[in-house]
């Protein structure tokens, strides 16, 4: 019997799991993917929003500002790549002045520190590549950028080290109320695609299932919610384009969201996107010609001379848009001990730390869980060779020669870093899991050079047969057989 089961291993579920691991009790995270951070949390704008956009008094506004304020300490303690680069919401000459002033007033009501309107020479000095038609901007100094992979994995690893169990490639099939809590029926899929079933019993359930959160709420509660999958497509540019802007550049938001942004990433790339299209397919993460063609012209409204010849990849992610246009949080009124963290779209990444704090406190209070003595609140990420001085690199290689063997030439990732990713808590078991922990495969050639070498390392270190090494979950195998015997 578990005290609590968290459904969903995205940034929200893992933030909740970390906060729950501060309390005594038996907890578990169930994730359908082969790794945490395999859904919305891996395909978003990687922005920690300042908090000026959400309606005052909403869950989004309250938790965005709180989550933003938590990030400096979390980034230091959990070794997360994070930088406060500030954000600008730009207005062109054709747009009415009141739009920016309304955002400014909302931001002030939400408690966003330091926001102000900038224009003229000050604005052009901040961002020389703004479009010529831009006349002013709302500046928010607390806006920031983060690595969403590191953030999610850091929450998960820290939760794991404090006793939280993780069940990956495990899909929830049914939830039923029972005496004392809930029965959660799951299917576990092995690397060879064999499936086993199991019934898990728990006192409480936390529903952080992303675009599927409405499914599980509606199984146990008469207070129905409805989530639409809102697709966002992106272009990622090479690091040589990374300095085209210094801040995160937003356009005035519309009914479908904050529009197409242009921003640096914490790793030095340039990101353009997203589109916003509501779709029926909750697995529809394919890019489309229409979506990708839309991005350059839309981005040019705010930023000129985008070096689009430097695009190295494109991707799409889904946001969980709930009809009420706000986060659905807390215990369902007619389903005791069933807690929702549903409708977590933008600013979900920014709000995740605060959502975790709030939901875990509610669950712990309801179950009477006591604070854990000796909670470990720090975590050290993968040691990246490229971040070290030459002396430090040489010493690391002397201690472990695997750090002298470069596997990914684009990002200069060594075998030692990949071994660390495999053997650390909740270790990587697929190419994408290695990539999210090390960046091997994220560079200019997009894993064209390093993927065979990573496959070989996974085979050697994990004992996974070559034919079963996958890109991610499901039947994503690279190798189907041998073309000759050696």
Your description of this structure?
The protein is an alpha+beta fold and 486 residues long. It folds into 3 domains: 163 residues, FAD/NAD(P)-binding domain; 153 residues, D-Amino Acid Oxidase, Chain A, domain 2 (2-Layer Sandwich); 84 residues, Arc Repressor Mutant, subunit A (Orthogonal Bundle). The chain contains 12 helices and 22 strands. Strands 1, 2, 9, 10, 11, 12, 19 and 20 form an 8-stranded mixed β-sheet that branches. Strands 13, 15, 16, 17 and 18 form a 5-stranded antiparallel β-sheet that branches. Strands 6-7-5-14 form a 4-stranded mixed β-sheet. Strand 19 and strand 20 form a beta hairpin. Helix 1 runs parallel beside helix 5 and helix 10 packs across helix 11. The longest helix is centred in the N-terminal third of the chain and has 20 residues. The radius of gyration is 22 Å and the shape is globular. The mean pLDDT is 96. InterPro entries: BFD-like_2Fe2S-bd_dom, BFD-like_2Fe2S-bd_dom_sf, FAD-dep_OxRdtase, FAD/NAD-bd_sf, G3P_Oxidase/Oxidoreductase.
**Beta-strand segment tally:** 22
- Percent in helix: 25-40%
Which structural class best describes the helix and strand composition?
alpha+beta
Q: Count of DSSP helices?
A: 12
What radius of gyration results from the CA coordinates? 22 Å
Query: What is the distance, rounded to the nearest whole angstrom, between the alpha carbons of the first and last residues?
Result: 51 Å
The CATH architecture of the largest domain can be given as 3-Layer(bba) Sandwich
Q: Which regions have little confidence, pLDDT < 50, spanning 5+ residues?
A: none
Q: What overall form do the CA principal axes indicate?
A: globular
Reported for the largest beta sheet, the result is: 8 strands, mixed
CATH class of the largest domain: Alpha Beta
Domain FAD dependent oxidoreductase: 3-361
Protein name: FAD/NAD(P)-binding oxidoreductase
Pfam family, one: DAO
InterPro entries: BFD-like_2Fe2S-bd_dom (IPR007419), BFD-like_2Fe2S-bd_dom_sf (IPR041854), FAD-dep_OxRdtase (IPR006076), FAD/NAD-bd_sf (IPR036188), G3P_Oxidase/Oxidoreductase (IPR052745)
């Amino acid at each position: 019997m578990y005290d609590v089961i968290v459904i969903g291993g995205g940034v929200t579920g893992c933030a909740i799991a970390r906060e729950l691991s501060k309390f005594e009790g038996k907890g578990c995270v169930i994730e359908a993917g082969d790794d945490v951070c395999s859904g919305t949390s891996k395909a978003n704008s990687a922005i920690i929003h300042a908090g000026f956009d959400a309606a005052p008094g909403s869950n989004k506004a309250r938790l965005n500002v709180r989550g933003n304020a938590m990030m400096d300490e979390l980034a230091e303690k959990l070794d997360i790549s994070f930088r406060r680069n500030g954000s600008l919401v730009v207005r062109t000459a054709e747009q009415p002045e009141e739009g920016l002033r309304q955002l400014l007033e909302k931001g002030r009501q939400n408690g966003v520190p330091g926001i102000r309107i900038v224009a003229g020479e000050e604005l052009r000095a901040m961002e020389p590549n703004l479009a010529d038609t831009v006349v002013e901007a709302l500046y928010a100094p607390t806006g920031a950028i983060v690595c969403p992979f590191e953030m999610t994995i850091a929450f998960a690893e820290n939760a794991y080290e404090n006793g939280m169990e993780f069940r990956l490639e495990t899909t929830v099939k049914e939830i039923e109320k029972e005496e004392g809590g809930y029965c959660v029926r799951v299917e576990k899929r092995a690397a060879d695609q064999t499936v086993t079933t199991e019934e898990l019993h728990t006192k409480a359930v936390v529903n952080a299932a992303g675009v599927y959160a409405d499914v599980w709420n509606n199984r146990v509660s008469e207070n129905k919610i409805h989530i639409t999958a809102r697709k966002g497509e992106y272009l990622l540019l090479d690091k040589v384009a990374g300095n085209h802007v210094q801040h995160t550049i937003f356009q005035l938001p519309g009914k479908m969201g904050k529009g197409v942004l242009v921003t640096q990433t914490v790793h030095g790339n340039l990101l353009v996107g997203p589109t916003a299209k509501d779709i029926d397919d909750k697995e529809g993460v394919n890019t489309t010609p229409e979506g990708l063609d839309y991005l350059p012209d839309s981005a040019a409204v705010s930023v000129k001379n985008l070096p689009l010849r430097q695009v190295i990849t494109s991707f799409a992610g889904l946001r969980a848009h709930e009809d009420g246009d706000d986060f659905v949080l807390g215990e369902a009124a007619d389903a005791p001990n069933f807690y929702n963290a549903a409708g977590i779209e933008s600013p979900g990444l920014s709000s995740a730390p605060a959502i975790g704090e709030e939901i875990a406190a509610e669950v712990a209070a309801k179950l009477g869980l006591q604070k854990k003595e000796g909670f470990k609140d720090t975590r050290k990420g993968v040691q990246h060779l490229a971040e070290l001085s030459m002396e430090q690199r040489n010493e690391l290689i002397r201690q472990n020669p695997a750090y002298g063997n470069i596997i990914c030439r684009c990002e200069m990732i060594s075998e030692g870093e990949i071994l660390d990713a495999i053997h650390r808590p909740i270790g990587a078991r697929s190419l994408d899991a290695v990539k999210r922990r090390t960046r091997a495969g994220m560079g200019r050639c997009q894993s064209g050079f390093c993927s065979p070498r990573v496959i070989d390392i996974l085979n050697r270190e994990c004992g996974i047969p070559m034919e079963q090494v996958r890109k991610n979950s499901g039947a994503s195998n690279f190798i189907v057989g041998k073309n000759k015997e050696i």
